[in-house]
Specification:
The chain is an alpha/beta fold. It is 25% helix and 25% strand. A hairpin with a 2-residue loop joins strand 7 (87-95) and strand 8 (98-100). The termini are far apart.
Length: 382
């Protein structure tokens, strides 16, 4: 009986091998493939698709962020980008108009309502995963009493933190509209940027907290008079949680706050209302949002007067200004929020602040925001 069972198994194996050999073979698909010249080739096996297009909003040289793809005889669609700067790029396929992630690529980046495939183009030493000591990034779930539900944030701890020694300053880093708490560490490469800066001795070892700036899937602007849910969550839950669960140095001189786009607006909302708690403030591609009164025919951004009124006690408190060591703005010359940044800088000067404003090349993209983080972090906790 045992010999018969063994013979039957061998026969089935042989038959399976014959069937496999006779079946049409799926061609190997490599996607994405980065060349030495920093072009990226994307491929997708979709023999029955009628149209396939690649979308990648931050990749320079693509018309409106779209890359046409061509179908080969083997059913594989293929498209190659122009030469691109080193960095990380999100992308997705549109298959017959339906968005799809790259099934051959496990690397991904989250946003507020969906996920993206991601490709890393090496070549910038300050943003690459170098041979230096690395910190750790944790996805941390906490209960928000302000919002009555569980929430998530990402927390970077510097190299050596796990050894249980020492306390560290804390940097709260906020993302932009449509993104989430994952974005700064995935497409933003914040962990690697901090690793490289700390290894080079140009930035102090620090804890970086990256919370979820959206409190719902809605992307619409907050209506006038509505509750600011994120600020409530940040002040009531995020800061107390972090400063009681991590080994942090206390005091204004050990706290920094920065954000990009929507997160830059949130940085100003929170930082200028709690100026006594932050010694370092950074605003990337952003400013105070809202619609203030304009003179006839003017299209220039105007700061809503109520924004200043609500924060007057902090804005006009001369005793608090010396403790604000850095107030730093950076926006690209092609950024649609450049006017908002400039209006905000002028408003703060009117209140006797001394903001530093840097106008850079480029627009409203991660290519700039990674640069801004790399330049801002070394300014902290000096």
């Amino acid at each position: 009986m045992q010999r018969k069972a063994m013979w039957t198994a061998a026969a089935l194996f042989a038959a399976s091998a014959i069937v496999y050999a006779q079946a049409p073979q799926t061609p190997p698909v490599v996607s994405p493939e980065v060349s030495a010249q920093r072009t990226v080739t994307f491929r997708l096996m979709a023999p029955k698709a009628e149209t396939v297009e690649l979308q990648c909003g931050d990749m320079p040289g693509l018309t409106r962020g779209a890359l046409p793809m061509v179908k080969g005889a083997n059913g594989v669609w293929e498209g190659t980008s122009p030469v691109v700067p080193a960095g990380a790029y999100r992308y997705r396929f549109l298959v017959n108009g339906v968005a799809a992630m790259d099934p051959r690529n496990p690397l991904m980046s989250e946003s507020n309502t969906n996920g993206w495939s991601m490709v890393v183009v090496s070549g910038a030493a300050w943003v690459d995963a170098a041979q230096v000591p690395h910190g750790a990034v944790a996805a941390v779930t906490y209960y928000s009493k302000a919002l009555s539900r569980n929430r998530r944030m990402h927390v970077y701890t510097p190299p050596g933190y796990e050894l249980g020694k020492g306390k560290f300053p804390i940097f709260y880093l906020l993302h932009g509209a449509s993104d989430c708490d994952d974005s700064w560490t995935s497409v933003g490469r914040a962990g690697f940027i901090l690793d490289n800066l700390i290894a080079a001795g140009t930035a102090k070892p620090m804890i970086v907290v990256m919370p979820a700036g959206h409190t719902s899937t809605s992307m619409g602007p907050r209506t006038a008079g509505a509750r600011d849910e994120f600020t409530d969550d940040f002040v009531t839950d995020i800061m107390p949680y972090v400063e009681s669960h991590y080994r942090v140095l206390k005091g204004r001189q050990n706290r920094a706050l920065a954000g990009l786009s929507m997160g830059g607006g949130q940085t100003l909302n929170i930082g200028m209302a709690h100026l006594d708690q932050f010694g370092y403030i950074g605003v990337f591609s952003s400013g105070v949002f809202g619609r203030g009164p304009r003179t006839a025919g003017s299209t220039a951004p105007v700061i809503p007067p109520e924004w200043e009124t609500e924060r007057a006690a902090m804005l006009d408190n001369a005793k608090l200004k010396p403790g604000l060591k850095v107030l730093w703005f950076a926006t690209g010359k092609d950024d649609f929020l450049l006017g908002t940044t400039k209006a905000t800088v002028e408003m703060l000067k009117k209140h006797h602040f001394e903001p530093v404003f840097k106008e850079t090349e480029g627009g409203h993209t991660w290519l700039n925001w990674r640069d801004y983080l790399n330049e801002f972090a070394p300014k902290l906790f000096k």
